[in-house]
Description:
By secondary structure, the chain is α+β, with helices and mostly antiparallel strands.
Amino acid sequence: MLCVKPCTDIEFKEQVLSTLGYNADSAELLTAEENGRLLGYAAVKQLGQNLEILRLSIMSCTDYSSPTEEDSEIAEYLVRAAANYAYNRMLTTLSCSLPEFSTILLRLGFDKVDNLCEINIKKLFNSCKNCK
């Protein structure tokens, strides 16, 4: 079963965040795992009312501009987990300024202005017809 949650492997978390110039006190790492196998991760950092995606990594993806269906699915799980993480902290937007991820993010409904992809996190969580 696929599980996306904050990383519990402190050593791996510190390793990834340090390559981005951050540490566990200044950023968070969300990991997607299935049966103990790492599928991908999203490094995020809060900036005011925004949660910025610092890095999105899908272990099996070789071309983020043309991801496979499975890679797109893993990316979507990670982005939605990041949005949930932001929502639970009462943040309003999710953004990413890394151009290699824009194809994936635009498919999920992000708006692109210059080099920034951004979305109001409520747009990622639509209510079903029966919930109104």
